User: What shape does this take?
Amino acid sequence: MMVRRVSCGMWLGAAMMCCVAGAAAVDKLGEMQARFDHEKNPVRRAKLLEKLGDAEFDEARRAFKANDLSTVGMVLEKYRDNVRVALEGLKKKHTDAQKDSNGYRQLEIHVRRGIREADEIIVRVPEEYQPPLQIVRRDLDVMDRELIHMLFLHHDEVPAGPKPPEATTSSEHPAGPPEDQR
Assistant: This one.
């Protein structure tokens, strides 16, 4: 009987520690989110997203383990929104990612990680929870492609546009001068 009480007490203690750790993680996430929201420098904001995004992924995994799938969706949607804010800030402040890639690189690497996290979750959730997660994943993919384009597009390349008129060959016109010159 004594062993049973000790083991129940240990389980209860472990459960309480998990609750406290979960609450502390949520507080830490809220604090990181507030720091991200108040940061004015877009490069520092993109770098803050690395830590904030990792904390959001941890929260999503914790919610998934607790079978709280609506929280998983909300956390991933918030991550996507944070990525969008960071990207828009970088585009406004630093228009040429090739010349000054600071912030862009960190954001692109983390967005790729976010896509992998979303993929892992999507394949494990029931079908009815997949559509909103697939939208988040698609949005992340679009932003990742935009970042890659901004980082690796060669500005010295001539954009595709109308081609100059080609020189005509003699086989395209009848022999001799045009009719108005005869």
